[in-house]
Every structure is written in C-alpha cells, then in structure tokens.
C-alpha cells in the first residue's frame, strides 16, 4: 500500500489519477478541496463542537494511504480479527477491506442473479457509471448544511476533506422489488498510523428490502491515526433498509463519521450506530424524511472507558407530511471518559401529521466520568406530535450492593446493570449475532 503525505490540491489530483476516475468525479473532488482549504477546523467555540476539542487531532500530519492494486486474498489470509467476526456474524455475503484495499468479497449467486451489487466504489464507477453519478454525494457532500445545527461552515470542513481525498469505499445496490433479510456485511480493517478516508453508498430501489452491516476493526493499540468515513443511504419509494455502523477501533484512533439518509415516499430506515472503540470518535447521523409516510428509527449504543471521548449528533429532518422518526441513544461511561449527545428534530412547514421522538439516556459508572446531553426541537408545522428528553445518572449504589451481597463480583454486577440500562436498545436489534457481539464488547469493557 502506497503512502502519500502533505494535504494539497496536487494530492487530490494524484488520488484521482491513481484510481483512474472519470472527469466528473475529479471535478467534484476539486470542488470539495476548495471548500476544505478555505474553511477553519471546528473548535469548542463552534456550538456543535463545544464539548469536543479536535485541536490535537493530526489531520495534516499523517500520510494518506493509497491502494496499490494488490490481488484478492484467500479467506484464510484475512486478518485474524476479521476472520473471527466473519465466523460469528451469520452473514449472507461480505466484503473485506484492509486499509484502502478491497481484499476479499463473497456474494451469493442468488442475490447476484437478482441484480444485487456489493462491490467497491471504484469498481462500481466502471460497472454502474450512471447510477454512481446520480447518487454519489447526493446525501453527504461538502455543503450539506441542513437545519440550524448545520449552518456554520466549520461543520463542512471534515466532510469536504473526505470528499476530496477518499481512497476507497463500498457500493450496495438493491434493485426494485428485491428483498433479503439475512445481512450483507463489510469489514474495514485499519492498521493505524495514517490517514484513512472511505465512503459507503447504499441505494435501495422502489419496494426493495435489505440488511447491511459495516464494521470498523483494528489492532487494540495503534499510533495516532485518523479515520474519516461517510455513509450515504438513498431509498426510493417503499424501500426498506436495516443498517448498522459498528466501530471498535483501537486506542490511538480518531474516528469521524458523517451519515445521511434520504427517504422517499413510504421508505423506511432502521439505523444502528455503535461506538465502542477509538480514543476520540464523533458520529453525525441524519435522516431526511423527503417523502410522505417515510419512517426512520435511529438507535445508538456507546460505552467509554479510560480517557475515551465519544460525541454523537443526530438530526431528524422532516420535510414531508405523515412521517415518523424515533431516536433512542443510550450509553455508559466509566473511569475518566466522556460522552456527548446533541440532537435536533427539525420540522419544515409542510411536515404536518409528523410523529417524532428523541431520547438520550446515560449511565455513569465512576465519579470522574461525564456525560453532556443537548436534545432540541425546531417545529415549523402545527399539527404534529413531538417529544424529546434526556437523563444522566450514576449507577445505583443500592442495586450494585444488592448484587454483590449475593456473591457476584463487582464487575459482574456492573455488567448486569449496564446491560439492563441498554436493554431497550439491544432488544430492538433483531440481528441475534450482532446483538451477541455487542453484549460481549460491553462485558469486556466493564472488566477493564
């Protein structure tokens, strides 16, 4: 894998040339670069970043990793951590990236015959050029400022960097009327010590149905590393997608994720974001209800320990009428770690008969842990049902004492209480293998 340093316009040109991209994509990259170059990085003076300081993140000190065009590997040659996850995950098909290189892919013949595509973005540029041109950057780009929480230009700085310099990505296309309920998965194994930038594009045709799980994996500890990811989900009328973004990166990683879904008429998205790893992570997750009758469920799980810092922002943007959205983000923090949640329900004047709910709950396992929660509403319609709320509380000492008095070690008692706290999110995950994986991570983090 080749490494290139120094962020510059010339680097954008080098990346696009190396990847043999069409002219229209190069033009998009250069426009994104111009946006990145003129904008400041967000600071704690920026309202949406007031609890998260990125001044120490080495965005411009790390080399960007480029694919070298290595041949595909056998399944036995995949990183051990990825092999272990594949064995546990109960997937219909999957693809594996090591750094910016797609090294392995499996897709059942039955899905291939029906027109389902699971491949790299750059392969899709050659095999599905019109679909790519129509959908890439449609949902997440370098000027995607929606709602009062997105008006400040600093919020486009990192999405612009991703758009200018992404080196790899995934394209999932599900044709009109095609349905499958066993998940397809993508594993991104990052070795650390460099800048990584990738994208995901999910397109669901009318009345299709799919399940897609994306996981970020790395060694337990790495040198300072930055990962910029962007996920675009574009659903036509009646399409239904269940999506999960699971991040268990090692200590030393700074992980920044921007995700936005465009939901057409009667489309439905069930989304799950899990942030358990990285030294610092921020996930900006948005659903836009553009079609009448659309539905968005946004679930979040996080657990921090040591000096970890995790920041979530959610946006439920209701444009059309008779749409439904529900956010439920729950987490726990121990040691000296910190969690941040900010969310906005924004209703446009035409979003009558909206049902929208937003809930954030936090559990603190030590006196030095901290959680900040800022739920918000911005209502432009008058015939709606909306509510929001949050809570933060320490572990109930009486409950923990009771469990310990029955002979349970303290960490086992804490495991039980954390699982009970997160149970209403966990039970809304119908993917049994994924739910078991998350529960296992929680158990290990409580022991630390």
TrEMBL record:
SUPFAM superfamilies per the UniProt record, alphabetical: Stabilizer of iron transporter SufD (SSF101960)
Domain named SUF system FeS cluster assembly SufBD N-terminal: residues: 24-184
Signal sequence, renumbered to the chain: none
InterPro entries in alphabetical order: Fe-S_cluster_assembly_SufBD, SUF_FeS_clus_asmbl_SufBD_core, SUF_FeS_clus_asmbl_SufBD_sf, SUF_FeS_clus_asmbl_SufD, SufBD_N
The organism's place on the tree of life at top rank: Bacteria
Gene Ontology biological process terms in this record: iron-sulfur cluster assembly
SUF system FeS cluster assembly SufBD core domain: residues covered: 194-420
TM ranges: none
Similarity comment: family membership: Belongs to the iron-sulfur cluster assembly SufBD family.
Protein name: FeS cluster assembly protein SufB
Organism, as annotated: Calidithermus terrae
Lineage: Bacteria, Thermotogati, Deinococcota, Deinococci, Thermales
Gene (name only): sufB_1
């Amino acid at each position: 894998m080749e490494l290139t340093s120094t962020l510059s316009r010339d680097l954008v040109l080098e990346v696009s040339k190396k990847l043999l991209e069409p002219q229209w994509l190069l033009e998009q990259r250069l426009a994104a670069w111009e946006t990145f170059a003129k904008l400041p990085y967000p600071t704690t003076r920026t309202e949406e970043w007031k609890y998260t300081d990125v001044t120490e993140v080495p965005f411009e000190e790390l080399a960007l990793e480029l694919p070298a065009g290595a041949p595909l590997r056998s399944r036995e040659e995949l990183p051990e951590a990825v092999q272990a996850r594949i064995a546990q995950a109960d997937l219909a098909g999957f693809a594996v990236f090591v750094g910016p290189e797609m090294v392995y892919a499996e897709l059942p013949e039955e899905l291939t015959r029906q027109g389902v595509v699971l491949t790299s973005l750059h392969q899709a540029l050659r095999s599905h050029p019109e679909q790519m041109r129509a959908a890439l950057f449609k949902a997440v780009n370098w000027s995607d400022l929606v709602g009062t929480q997105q008006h400040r230009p600093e919020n486009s700085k990192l999405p612009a960097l991703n758009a200018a310099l992404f080196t790899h990505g995934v394209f999932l296309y599900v044709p009109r009327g095609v349905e499958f309920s066993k998940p397809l998965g993508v594993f991104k194994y990052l070795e650390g010590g460099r800048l990584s930038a990738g994208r995901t594009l999910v397109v669901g045709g009318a009345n299709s149905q799919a399940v897609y799980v994306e996981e970020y994996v790395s060694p337990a500890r790495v040198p300072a590393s930055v990962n910029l990811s962007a996920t675009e989900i574009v659903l036509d009328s009646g399409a239904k997608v269940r999506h999960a973004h699971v991040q268990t990166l090692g200590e030393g990683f700074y992980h920044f994720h921007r995700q936005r879904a465009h939901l057409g008429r009667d489309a439905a998205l069930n989304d799950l974001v899990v942030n358990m790893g990285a030294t610092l992570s921020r996930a900006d997750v948005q659903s836009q209800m553009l079609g009448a009758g659309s539905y968005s469920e946004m679930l979040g799980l996080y657990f921090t320990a040591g000096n970890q810092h995790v920041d979530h922002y959610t946006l439920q943007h209701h444009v059309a009428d008779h749409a439904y959205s529900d956010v439920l983000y729950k987490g726990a923090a121990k040691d000296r770690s910190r969690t941040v949640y900010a969310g906005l329900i924004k209703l446009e004047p035409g979003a009558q008969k909206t049902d929208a709910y937003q809930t954030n709950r936090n559990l603190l396992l030590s006196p030095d842990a901290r959680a900040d929660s800022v739920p918000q509403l911005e209502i432009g319609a008058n015939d709606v049902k909306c509510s929001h709320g949050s809570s933060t509380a320490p572990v109930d000492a009486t409950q923990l004492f009771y469990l310990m008095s029955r002979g349970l070690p303290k960490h086992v008692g804490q495991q039980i209480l954390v699982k009970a706290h997160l149970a209403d999110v966990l039970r809304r995950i119908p993917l049994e293998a994924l739910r078991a994986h998350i529960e296992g991570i929680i158990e290990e983090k409580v022991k630390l």
